[in-house]
Amino acid sequence: MTAEHDNRFLTIEQVAEELNSKTSLIRNLIQTGQLRAFQVGPRGVWRVGRQDFEDYIADAYRRTAERIAAGELADHVPEEGQ
């Protein structure tokens, strides 16, 4: 693990980068309560705890496995960009 990955807290931008997604998606996950986060300081800068981020990923894997088992998802993995 690099020093960057040892950080206890992540910015919205760091979470988006790790998930290879847009910051707007991460903000939506926070707003809907799917990803725990909190605001710090007078400017209200958002931070996501590393463990909360890891928990979100584990939960996403679990939900996906349940959907596959229920036949809700196709058996093949789509190509990137599909």
Blueprint (SSEs and pairs):
Elements: E1 9-10, H1 12-19, H2 23-31, E2 38-40, E3 45-49, H3 50-69
Antiparallel strand pairs: 1-3, 2-3
Helix pairs in contact: 1-2
Structure, described:
It is a single chain. The chain is of the alpha+beta class. The chain has helices at 12-19, 23-31, 50-69, and strands spanning 9-10, 38-40, 45-49. Strand 2 and strand 3 (45-49) form a beta hairpin. Helix 1 (12-19) crosses helix 2 (23-31). The longest helix is centred in the C-terminal third of the chain and has 20 residues, at 50-69.
Could you give a quick summary of the protein structure above?
45% of the residues lie in helices and 12% in strands. It has helices at residues 12-19, 23-31, 50-69, and strands spanning 9-10, 38-40, 45-49. It has a 3-stranded antiparallel beta sheet.
Poorly predicted runs are none
N→C terminal distance: 31 Å
The strands making up the biggest β-sheet line up spatially as 1-3-2
What is the N-to-C order of secondary-structure elements (H for helix, E for strand)?
EHHEEH
The largest β sheet comes out as: 3 strands, antiparallel
The overall pLDDT average reads 89
Helix segment tally = 3
- Which structural category fits the helices and strands? alpha+beta
Specify Rg, calculated over alpha carbons. Answer: 15 Å
Strand tally is 3
Morphology: elongated
Helix content: 40-55%
β content, as a range?
A: 5-15%
